[in-house]
């Protein structure tokens, strides 16, 4: 791979596609050439990258000749169809969909946790589910110090996780609500303005868990390489544009206290502590939006566990950044050095 790779973005017109470009620019990621790929209806449209005008091309089987890195965020069906074609053409695929996350041949990578897995790729590297990333970045350093044996997570997930159209629906439905006008949902299954509802993925009739919850459980175990972790998850959609928040309670093997957790997280990569009890100031979407770190606060003893092994906390991170585009670009940044390792 050259110092200045040819990069293709599949799904460039989506919310994450735009963040791919913005994140590469912000981080000074070297690009020899950028190919902007999208569906046929977007072909011919123009966008700007680093002062140059790019013409969007239709994503086809011939799109990946000469491409070194292919960033995918166009949905799992598109990834399943075109990722093997991109790999065959010589590209390394970094896929933001759910298509390959549980594939044993595809590393599931959060660079702050398991960047060593990058070198094991066979052409495709999977970006974890945004809710898994949000929880695991701050949980991993704790897990390394004192193994986490049980997790209870409740998510408060933003519109961005359902794409640009869902973000627009939140804006439009909110305006309509404030104006006293009726608004019929088009993207999400329920009214979004001033409402909270179960995550908009299929419910397993046997377990009662939705697909988002199941993803968090399975991906946590794969990334932590520990199938024995007990995990309970409740995922809901909230009327926030682009930041996912979570209430997390974890139980460790040994007793652990608030101060230990703060000391561990103070030096943890990708984490920023926001935990001011005196001012009642803790992680909020308004502060996490546009930020790279996972904000962590409300760190406190779980009073329901008399053993002293459990801690509760609240976290928030930008779903389009660390939950998607930033995580992918961090992986891309590590590809050259990992290839030589």
Characterize the largest beta sheet: strand count, sense, and whether it forms a barrel. 7 strands, mixed
Q: Which strand order do you get reading across the main beta sheet?
A: 10-11-9-12-15-14-13
Q: N-to-C terminal Cα separation, in Å? A: 14 Å
- Mean pLDDT metric: 96
Verbal overview:
The two termini are 14 Å apart. This protein has helices at residues 15-27, 76-88, 111-114, 130-145, 164-178, 211-224, 258-266, 285-288, 321-340; strands spanning 6-10, 33-38, 46-49, 52-55, 57-58, 69-72, 92-95, 124-126, 148-157, 197-198, 230-237, 243-252, 271-273, 294-301, 310-318. The longest helix has 20 residues, at 321-340. With 341 residues, it is α/β, with parallel strands linked by helices. It contains nine helices and 15 strands. The chain has a seven-stranded mixed beta sheet. A six-stranded parallel beta sheet has the order 5-2-1-6-7-8, sandwiched between helices. The model is unreliable at 337-341 (pLDDT under 50).
